[in-house]
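Same chain as my last thread, 350 residues:
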Amino acid sequence: MSQRATLKDIADELGYSKNTVSLALRNSPQIPETTRRKVRRTAEKLGYQANAVVSHLMAQLRASQTPRFQAKLALINANPDKRAFSKHPTIPTYVSGCERRAAQLGYDFDQFWLHEPEMNPRRLINIFNTRNIKGLILVGLMQSSELPKEYSQVWDQFACAVTGVRTKQPTLSYCCADHHDLTIQACDNALELGYKRPALVLDDVIDRLVERRFSAGFLIGQQRFKKSDRLPPFLEYEDARNDLELFRSWLEEHQPDVIFTLYNSVISWLKKLGYKIPRDLGIIQLEWRDTDPDIAGMHQHNDMAGEAAVDMVISQIHNNEFGPPEYPRSTYIGATWQNGKTVRAQAARV
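reply #2:
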């Protein structure tokens, strides 16, 4: 065709209204999937191309309106604990971000527990299809990055994203904190506060789960410190919970002046060993939480990772991208420093 095809051309070709064609091209769940496919094929045949300026203006107009309910998404608790969405110290933050962003876009969530004893892949797929659920967000992987193999047919049929970690077998698109960069930032802030011998105290399982991004960031951040002050990380956290002597020996051998960790229990250990915080030793929490605002650390903004996961899944639905992607996408959320009483006063910065 010499002229660019319009919505009216597609509507006339198919005998549909312009509104039906417009909704179908935006992949609206209000239009049956068979109709959407027919409209897309006809649009491609006629050489239709959306006007980018008009699309942008319409998107702004929709954003300024109170969203109406469009469709449901599935929010899947992948944690072994069925109560993790409300009881875990970290996971509820991801959930709140997911729910907030979905509500802004007019979507709603149905929640599922991946380890429900009475659930199986076929039943889950039937539920999703019955409820017209096209997209899934997995939250709560804290011990393993591998999803149950028996559920592979589920991931194959829906738009999926994961928060917190990158999965393997299959590798899905994911959104999480930038663990590598936030640890480098923690080193930078420790240096500015006058600390000279930072140390990392972490569970090796967690470090492996995030593909060593914590320890890698720590090694990079240490380059700003003297070689003699670059201390090895303590990764035997779980063993030390049962045998505090492991931690004491490491502490006395390396004598750090500030510790980076994910665990408030490290503060209890230090107090038990007779250390005063921050007089004797500083503490920087690598996952600052508003439930303990006096502890200095890095705010990961995990709610923003939840929001990003919702955007990712909705984008996949609109672009008819279902199943594990050939090229998985990742979105990293930047962290910000939160000052607190567990480090030297700001006035001591050098």
